[in-house]
Design goal:
The protein is mainly α and about 325 residues long. The protein has one domain: MetI-like fold, CATH 1.10.3720.10. The chain is built from 15 helices and two strands. It has helices at about 5-10, 15-30, 35-60, 75-85, 85-115, 125-135, 140-150, 155-165, 175-205, 210-215, 220-230, 235-250, 255-260, 280-290, 295-320, and strands spanning about 65, 70-75. The protein has a two-stranded antiparallel ribbon with strand order 1-2. A hairpin with a 7-residue loop joins strand 1 and strand 2 (about 70-75). Helix 5 (about 85-115) crosses helix 14 (about 280-290). The longest helix has about 30 residues, at about 85-115.
Length: about 325
């Protein structure tokens, strides 16, 4: 069978087909305009209240601006000062310590609670709601409550109990380490139930045959927990670690509200000795108390890069697989 000259020469197809496809896409856009119009408010609001502030804050990080006068371009001067700012590094250290002191016990308790709820105890629905209530309660209300419970005076609930037991009052909100313990306890109490519900959903997807086989082999509950439960929940555990890292590095409301009840503590300084000064609280103080919006933007973007670094590290752990041809030992 003979071929046409165009095929023999390997000619490019006529652009007529491309123009037909372009017209078809335009007709599809015109025919679906009600759907695009229905979702457009989200993108408009996102652009105005999210995308534009993000871009503007990046631009602001290279400026010196008090919010009223003209902006002055300073290049990388804000970031250079940030690297030498002892208070910034102190706030970053506080943030990491509070994150570690809250995340480790929080995720462990959440895993234990989820494992207990998965055993089929009575009133499981009630416990699920009870554990989740702190997460949907106002953080401000929780922080005010904790500031009263952990008050450094003899009227604080914890110190009253300590007094009944014969001990002396503990300076919860005036000591460097007890301040961090109070903030970490608040975060742990608020988020333990949330993570427990996530773990419970993962546990319900674990095949019961694994536990039955382990029971037949003589494994006890503790062995089954560490040999079956934790390995099966590894992706979910790493997911909660990533989310807890992102949330923990943005701790702000808890120390700000706890120390706002006592003007002498200077809430925006994180209490005595800046022991509760987190990086977001430091950013808030520089930007909105001292009106140094350029430096505040530099702090915010530096924290964003640190959070991204931790997120990438955790993501690499989640997606890590053995390389082909490499045997396990």
């Amino acid at each position: 069978m003979s071929t046409t000259p165009a095929k023999e020469a390997g000619a490019v197809p006529s652009p007529v087909g491309g123009s037909h496809r372009a017209r078809g896409r335009k007709r599809a856009l015109r025919s679906h305009w009600p759907q695009y119009l229905a979702i457009s408010p989200y993108f408009v609001l996102f652009s105005v209240f999210m995308l534009f502030p993000i871009i503007f804050s990046l631009y602001l990080a290279f400026q010196k601006w008090d919010g009223l006068g003209e902006m002055e371009f300073v290049g990388l001067r804000n970031f250079a000062f940030l690297m030498k700012d002892d208070l910034f590094w102190r706030s970053l250290k506080n943030t990491f310590l509070i994150w570690f002191m809250s995340t480790v016990p929080m995720l462990f308790l959440a895993l234990v609670l989820a494992n207990m709820l998965n055993t089929g105890i009575r009133f499981t629905g009630f416990y699920r709601i009870a554990y989740f209530v702190p997460n949907v309660t106002s953080v401000v209300a929780i922080a005010i409550f904790f500031s009263s419970v952990f008050s450094s005076t003899d009227a604080g609930l914890i110190n009253v109990i300590v007094g009944w037991l014969g001990g002396s009052s503990i300076p919860w909100l005036t000591n460097e380490w007890t301040i961090k313990i109070v903030i970490a306890t608040l975060i742990c109490w608020q988020w333990t139930g949330y993570n427990a519900i996530i773990y419970l959903a993962g546990l319900q997807a674990v095949p019961t045959e694994l536990y039955e086989a382990a029971r037949i082999d003589g494994a006890g509950p503790v062995q089954a927990f560490f040999k079956i439960t934790i390995p099966q929940l590894r992706p979910i555990i790493l997911f909660t670690v990533v989310i807890s890292t992102i949330n923990g590095m943005q701790t702000f409301t808890e120390p700000q509200v706890i120390f706002s009840s006592n003007a002498a503590n200077n809430a925006n300084s994180g209490g005595p000795g800046s022991a509760g000064l987190t990086t977001i609280l430091y950013f808030y103080r520089e930007a909105f108390n001292f009106n140094d919006y350029g430096y505040g933007a530099a702090i915010a973007w530096s924290l964003f890069l640190i959070i991204m670094l931790f997120t990438v590290i955790n993501w690499r752990i989640v997606t890590r697989r053995d390389r082909p041809g490499r045997s396990r030992r």
